Amino acid sequence: MNLSDEMVQVLRNSVLAWLATVDADGWPNVSPKEIFAPYTDPAGITAAIAIADIASPISVSNLRINPRACLSAVDIFRQVGYKVQGHVRIIAPCDAAFTEVSRGLLELTGGQYLVRHVLLLEVEQVRRIMAPSYHLFPERSEAQRVAQAMQAYGVQPVEPPTHS
């Protein structure tokens, strides 16, 4: 399943994503992921999400037992996101695909983190996530929602530079 432009934009606007895996006994594990990006393969198809394993030994261990996972990412200002389910392929630095698959992630780290593996989530199912306010206050515009979220989080919008 290919990711839509909207899904790609939400992923790029999300600060954190949450990866859910399950251990051998069926216990769930949810782990925050800071470095992740839509992955476009060499054929130009965006049907996966690359996730950096920076400090995720439990997630990796669980995925070795059961490769099914769910990643949830939300654009906190627009208050919308996606829950993405699929199978994960664990790609180690010694794998031939690592350089290609990790390229975008390494750019995001700015050289600050060691990427131990790339967790390549191959998208099989996607569901939209929306804040309850979308149902409670459908008349609100996206601009109103963004302004309210920024106020709630104490964030000031950045003014674009003026050129004289």
What does this protein structure show overall?
A seven-stranded antiparallel beta sheet has the order 2-1-5-6-7-4-3. The protein contains five helices and seven strands. The protein is an alpha+beta fold and 164 residues long. The protein has a single domain (5-131), classed as Pnp Oxidase, Chain A (Roll). The longest helix is centred in the middle third of the chain and has 12 residues, at 98-109. The protein has helices at 5-13, 57-65, 98-109, 133-136, 142-153; strands at residues 17-22, 28-33, 36-40, 46-53, 68-75, 80-91, 117-130.
Write a short abstract of this structure.
It comes from Deinococcus radiophilus. The protein has 164 residues and is α+β, with helices and mostly antiparallel strands. The protein contains 5 helices and 7 strands.
- Determine the mean pLDDT: 92
How are the strands of the biggest sheet laid out side by side? Answer: 2-1-5-6-7-4-3
Q: Roughly what fraction of the amino acids lie in strands?
A: 35-45%
CATH topology: Pnp Oxidase, Chain A
Low-confidence stretches: none
Gyration radius over CA: 17 Å
CATH C-level name = Mainly Beta
Query: How many structurally independent domains?
Result: 1
Order of helices and strands: HEEEEHEEHEHH
Q: At the fourth CATH level, what is the homologous superfamily?
A: Electron Transport, Fmn-binding Protein, Chain A
Alpha plus pi helix count: 5
Could you tell me the number of beta strands? Answer: 7
What is the 3D form?
globular
Secondary structure class reads alpha+beta
Protein name: Pyridoxamine 5'-phosphate oxidase family protein
InterPro entries: Pyridox_Oxase_N (IPR011576), Split_barrel_FMN-bd (IPR012349)
Pfam family, one: PNPOx_N
Domain Pyridoxamine 5'-phosphate oxidase N-terminal: 3-113
